[in-house]
Amino acid sequence: MHTLFVIAGKDAKVIMRDRAALLVMLAMPLALIFILGSALGSIGQGDSLDIDVAIVNMDTGDTGQRFVEGLTGSKEIEALFNIDVSDDAEAVRTAVEKGDLTAALIIPPDLSEKIAAGEPVGLEVLQDPGSKIAGGIWASVVRAGVANASAQIIAVHTLQEELAGAGAQPPASPGAAPRMPSMTFDAVAVREIEAQVDKRISMISYYSAGMTGMFLLFGSMFGAFGFVKERREQTLARMLSTPAGKLSIVGGKAVGVLMIGVGQFAVLLIGTKMLFGVDWGQNLGATVLVGAAEAVAAAGLAMTLAALGKSERSIGGIGPAAIMLFAATGGSMIPTEQLPKFLLPVQVISPVYWTVSGFLDVMRGASVADVLPGVGAVLAIGAVLFAFGTWRLRFE
Amino acid sequence: MGSIVQVTDLVKRFGDFTAVDGVSFSIEEGEVFGLLGPNGAGKTTTISTISCLLSPDGGDVVVGGHSVSGAAMAVKRELGVVPQEIALYPTLSAAENLAFWGRMYGLAGADLASAVDDALALAGLEDRSKERVEKYSGGMKRRINIAAGVLHRPKVLLMDEPTVGIDPQSRNHILQTVKDLNAGGMTVLYTSHYMEEVEFLCDRIAIMDHGKIIAMGTLNELREVVGGMDVIDVKVENVSDPVLEQVRAIPGVSQANRTDSALQVLTPGSGAVLGKLVATLESEGSHVTSITVTEPNLESVFLHLTGKSLRD
Prior knowledge:
The structure holds two protein chains of two kinds.
Chain A (H helix, E strand, L loop, with lengths): L1 H15 L2 H21 L1 H4 L6 E7 L5 H10 L2 H6 E6 L2 H10 L4 E5 L3 H7 L3 E7 L4 H34 L22 E7 L8 H13 L2 H15 L2 H6 L5 H31 L7 H25 L3 H19 L13 H4 L3 H13 L4 H25 L4
Parallel strand pairs in A: 1-2, 1-3, 4-5
Antiparallel strand pairs in A: 3-4
Helix pairs in contact in A: 1-12, 2-9, 2-12, 9-12, 9-14, 9-16, 10-12, 10-13, 10-14, 12-13, 13-16, 13-17, 14-16, 16-17
Chain B lengths: L2 E12 L2 E12 L3 E5 L6 H8 L7 E6 L2 E2 L4 H7 E4 L11 H11 L4 H15 L14 H13 L5 E5 L7 H16 L3 E6 L2 H7 L2 E6 L2 E6 L1 H5 L6 E7 L4 H8 L6 E5 L2 E6 L2 H14 L4 E7 L3 H9 L6
Parallel strand pairs in B: 3-8, 3-9, 6-7, 7-8
Antiparallel strand pairs in B: 1-2, 1-4, 4-5, 9-10, 11-13, 11-14, 12-13
Helix pairs in contact in B: 3-4, 3-5, 4-5, 5-6
């Protein structure tokens, strides 16, 4: 065990002094996160003023319709919102859940009836929790609309009572006046409901997860380089002539890659947070668990690459190809839901998929328990890669 | 003192090729034992088997009472190994390299620090210990390569051609280092294809060729293999195969062999041969630049035994 850590420490030191390795493992991911996140940033930004909302009016009476006209007829409101009037409540709910709509107003079928009967009634405002500010503006607008409607009803009601007292007929007014209920909108509650949707993630956060997931695996390549180089330069043979067993040597090499991976992850985590303000979520433990699991997978991959590659050149071909395949199917480059369906089965063997998914889940609020299945999958993949690599590894 | 290394009927094959073919020798404690032979003779394979890097296909090696077949770890603890290649980490400093190899042998703390200091002193590189090895000259790397093999103070030091490709000054330093280590009680197994080094260092010598030991003994014992012969070294240009055959046909010439721009001739009596030798060479257009007559050395022993040069 002692020699295992001696070898791991030496390997970590050697890789840390390799400028090319540092460039690939640290500088490249940070640069790519910045470029991709900046270029595609607007796609995921939730709090823009070009706010897409929808109104579903299911009211069988006139009150709901007047309310809709009040909202859609305002130039001030029009300047802030793109309002879509729909009659499909489920479709609107789904759109909010998917993040296609920032918020929605659902007017219930019995609004007019309940108001006329003086019974409480609720307007439902759905909000995407990933767009709290925009959703909040929409809720405020709805509340203001309710208050305005209440004032109109009070005014008309008062007028009706005065005219009745004077023995006159009430005037025909536009809108609800002829059938104005006997109560105000006070009984109308605006229920703000956060749609049960994933927290929306900005592009810079997405690519921080994606690139970290991908570049953590590049540590494996440098670990494999190191093994092959040691084989070629006979330091491995020299190690074998010491009282260290082969298992200690292989374990030391793997732990060295693991140490490098954990260090690389720490730098990327802190770097993206400090440089780009990336929100990795509230559960640091879960994030670290996901990252550490992939560092383990990287250690396993290092052994497999060292076993498959006869030289640094061949590893330089096999390694990036394997990592890019894992990354492409794992969501490092584009969200996995946008991948062709035939690629989806490949995802389950990609440690990047589980890692990126884990990072994104934690960003959306997942706990340690939530990420454990994915962490388990990554560790299993790492164990298989380590076992295969160790089985096929050549020392001479 | 008894044998600290005992090699018995050692066989090592790589596929159909037998690299070591029934080799037996023993090394006494405190001795410098030389394995001399041309490239490909089986020296490195032998030393790799002793150091447990290769498993024997036949026979056995016992070091300090432990067999490589049954107690490899115990054997490794007795050994220090200086490989033919410079097996160091170029981006680590000399001190970091030495500390790493010391830790691999279980050294730690003050013992490790002391061993690193001693090893640096042995290599004569105390003042450059913090420089990366990649910045060292070839000779300096070789010295650190040796220091890394001895800092844990092994009982037996295996040195596989430790002077390949270095300048004469560094070579002298290394040879003197081996002498000093041996004077301090360390047993040394030294392989080389440079006969001068083996003659200078070794108490006993085994000459290997084609995986077998063809002669073994002290330097004087090996010289006696050649008997009372003289060795004529001729510096000459343009010795063709027909000319070499004519030289071999000269009465009194026991053996003749060509190496680069030299011709080595073994003869019981140099006086009777010299005139005819020069005449033959000159008549065939081979220009002689110098002639030296010496006592037999390991080169002539090898020539006598195999009919070829050590450097062939």
